[in-house]
Every structure is written in C-alpha cells, then in structure tokens.
Design brief:
The structure holds two protein chains of two kinds. Helix content of chain A is 59%, strand content 8%. Chain A is of the alpha+beta class. In chain A, helix 4 runs parallel beside helix 7. Chain A is globular and about 55 Å long. Chain B is an alpha+beta fold. Chain B has ten helices and four strands; from the N terminus they run E-H-E-H-E-E-H-H-H-H-H-H-H-H. Chain B has a four-stranded mixed sheet, covered by helices on one side. Chain B is globular and about 55 Å long. The model of chain B has no long low-confidence stretch (mean pLDDT 95). The chains are: A alpha+beta, B alpha+beta.
Chain lengths: 219, 226
C-alpha cells in the first residue's frame, strides 16, 4: 500500500521548508497544499486545531504538527534512507539541543529586525549576530553541523538562510562579514538538491518583506 | 567502570524535577548537585555555557542540557520503563503535547499567577482554553502515558504540585474541578504516585518562594506605572 503524504505549507515559511527538505532527503512523493494564512482552510483547522498553523504533515490521514516534531517523525518512519539524526544518544541529544537553540532565537530575532525600528532593531541585530557566531562556533571545521553528513541541525538552520538578505537589507548589516564560515556552510547546503529545491529565492523573500513593511507602515 | 550520573539542579526548579522523576522512575542511580542560582558554580557555567541554567545531566563526564533533550536522552540510554511510546506516530503526539504544555499551558498559567488586572484576566482566559485541549486529550486515560506515567505526565507534572500553590497565594481557581474533571483527577493521581510524592520540594518553602516572586513582580509593576 502506497503512503499518502500531504503537506500544508506556505511558501516563505522557514518551518515549512524544513519539512520539504526532509521529504526530499528521504525520496518521498507528496502533495503540497499552499494555505492562505488570512483565510485558513477547513482542512488546516481540522488537522491543527490547537495552533491552526503550518506546516502540517498529513500521513495516511493522520496529522503531525510542529516542524521539529514532523522532521523527527519523518526520520523515524523512513529510517533506512538519509538518516537526519545520528544513531548515538549523546550525539542525538546535542543535535536536539542545537535545534532547540535555533528555534528559540533565530525566528524572533530575525523577525524583530524587519518589523521594528530604532533601538529595538539594533538590539535584535546585535543579539542575532551573537547567536549566529555561537552557531558558527558549534559548526567549527565540520562540513555540516551533522559532521560529514547533512543532518537535523543543518535542516533546522539552513531554512533561515533565504531570509538573511531580507534581514541584512532591513538592518543594514552583513552576516557574511561577521560569520563567513556560516555563509560558506549555507552555500554548501544549497548544493544539495533537497535544499535548493525547498528554499525560495532570497530576492523573492526580500520583496515580500518590503511589501509587508509597506502594508504595516514600518519604515 | 561504573556509570557516573550527576544531575545539576536547584531545590525548586520544576524543569530539574522532571529529570529527578525520570531518573527515579527508571531506577537510575545518580548524584544530585544542588546549585544556588544566584551564585552559579564554575562547573555549571562550564557544562552549560549557552544557557547557564539547570537542569544539566552529566553522564560519564558528558553534559546534556534542556529538560526535553535530557528526558529523551535518558529514555534512549536506559531502556527500562520507557517514557516515550514506541510507535513513531504516538511519539510525535507525545512530543507535540509536551511542547504545548511548556509553550502554552505553562506560560499562560504563570502569567495568570504573576500578572495583575487586565493582563491577569486575559491570562486566565488563555489558560482555560489551553486546559480544555488537555482535558480532551485525557479522555479514557488515567495518565497521558496511558496506564502508567510517561513523558507528557512528567513534563506537565509541575501542574500537579505548583498550581495549588499558585491558587493558594493569589486566591483564584485556575484548574477548576467542575470545568476540568479529568485533569483535576490526573493531578491527584500524579501527585499521589509514590515516586512523585517522595520527590517534591517542601510545600511551605515553595509558598514562601513564590509569594516573594509575586511580591517582587507587584512592586516592580507599581513602581513603573506612575
């Protein structure tokens, strides 16, 4: 019996992108449905009644929500191909720790850079760069956060890379200037078809952010 | 060589308590290292330089931080008395509810305790909505883990011992037995389970601590609104 996989998604969501990458890494066919977040579908409301958010993976009719949980689910069900989490419990714990760090920091700080002004924005910029430097330190000399192989932490962070240009424009700074190794890592990841096919063009994200800033009157 | 398991904790941290419960449930021998969080030890800062918090589990010299990460590590390393289900879908559901407990339930109940006026009213409304989801999830089960205590029970366990303390201090009902009968009875069953009952910080000390936190919050909010 073939698996039925559907992904409720939104093109610019870094969280949705993580699931896309995981599905491609595992070689899985799936149906992608783009949600209108201003007019959420009955399916989304039924499949994620608690948060009413995307991404939602629907596997043979059963929903899984929250991107790190979805990615781990995909990794556990389709465990024979391209494992994303390492086998050793201590290395798994380190991967989960860093994925949790990324989730608690990058989205909120990046968001403040394009939605706030003045001191708020400057403070967010400074903190974002500190976090990215810490992550760059964790990467060290390894090709990926997962070591020799692309893994869970790589999936969790790389999806923010298409938003970097938008953050840099709004905040007037350069991530590459302070974290060259991290940017080199993003380029390495983009050489993988799972990543390049899942991330939108940073220019498209930038234009989207410009539109939103106009709409909400953020200068 | 024997296993060396150390848990860096404070006497009252509900996050560290999760790890105590998990270690006790699995019968794992460990050494508890009590930290004074106002004066963190060099060892704590060395083992958790990123967050500088407890709990930290140190297993054979290797540190793991963040309670959810530690719980999964414990479950994968010591396989007796499993905390997470084996089936991947059920595991995903357990992880989902655990995250919901911290992101929504804990934050709304904490706000209902620590805030005043309109913010408190709004937090109580949010808490009730969140609790409704948990109540629904409890149908047909004694514990979130089924017949015995599991991952979600351990994560939510602070509810069983802290909520009555909060309710006593602020004089408000947060988990009403009439509105949330299943959750209320879960709180009793959980708190009475021997391992939990024997591993809870002293109630009178907790009341003093949280009353002091509330007094400080009221003092700082009234001094900032002139």
């Amino acid at each position: 019996m073939a698996d039925e996989i559907m992904l409720l998604d939104w093109w610019s969501s870094m969280f949705g992108m993580r699931v896309r990458i995981a599905l491609v890494e595992k070689g899985l066919k799936y149906e992608s449905r783009e949600e209108d977040l201003n007019n959420k579908s009955p399916l989304l409301l039924e499949m994620n009644p608690v948060h009413t958010k995307i991404p939602v993976l629907i596997h043979n009719g059963k929903p899984i929500c929250e991107s790190p949980i979805i990615v781990q689910y995909i990794d556990e069900v389709w465990k024979d191909k391209s494992p994303l989490l390492p086998a050793d419990p201590y290395q798994r714990a380190r991967a989960r720790f860093w994925a949790d760090y990324i989730d608690n920091k990058i989205f909120q700080l990046g968001g403040k850079i394009w939605t706030r002004k003045g001191e708020d924005r400057e403070a967010a910029k400074k903190e974002l760069m500190e976090c990215l430097k810490i992550l760059e330190g964790e990467l060290g000399e390894k090709p990926y956060f997962g070591g020799e192989n692309f893994g869970f932490v790589d999936v969790s962070l790389v999806t923010f890379s298409c938003w970097f240009y938008a953050y840099e424009s709004c905040g007037n700074f350069s991530i590459e200037a302070e974290c060259p190794k991290l940017i080199a890592w993003t380029k390495r990841c983009l050489q993988k078809s799972s990543v390049s096919s899942s991330l939108p063009d940073p220019l498209k994200i930038h234009d989207f952010v410009v539109q939103l800033r106009k709409k909400f009157g953020i200068e | 060589m024997g296993e060396e398991v150390k848990l860096f904790r404070s006497w009252s941290s509900p996050f560290a308590l999760r790890i105590v419960w998990a270690l006790e449930i699995k019968g794992i021998e460990y050494e508890a290292v009590f930290e004074d969080l106002s004066n963190k030890s060099p060892l704590l800062l060395q083992y958790n330089p990123v967050h500088k918090k407890v709990p930290i589990l140190v297993h054979n010299g290797r540190p793991i931080a963040e309670s959810f990460v530690i719980l999964e590590y414990i479950d994968e390393t010591w396989k007796q008395v499993p905390l997470l289900p084996e089936d991947p879908y059920e595991r995903a559901m357990a992880r989902f509810w655990a995250k919901f407990c911290d992101d929504k339930v804990l934050t709304s109940i904490w706000s209902a305790f620590i805030k005043q006026g309109k913010e408190q009213e709004e937090a109580l409304v949010a808490a009730a909505e969140n609790l409704k989801f948990l109540e629904k999830e409890m149908k047909g089960k004694k514990f979130f883990g089924g017949e015995r205590i599991g991952y979600v029970d351990i994560v939510l366990g602070w509810l069983a011992n802290l909520v009555s303390i909060f309710e006593e201090i602020v004089g408000l009902k947060i988990v009403d037995e009439g509105k949330f009968p299943l959750l209320y009875s879960w709180m009793q069953d959980f708190a009475e389970a021997p391992i939990i009952r024997d591993n809870c910080p002293p109630r009178d000390k907790m009341i003093v601590k949280f009353q002091a936190l509330l007094d400080a919050a009221i003092a700082s909010s009234s001094s900032s609104s002139k």
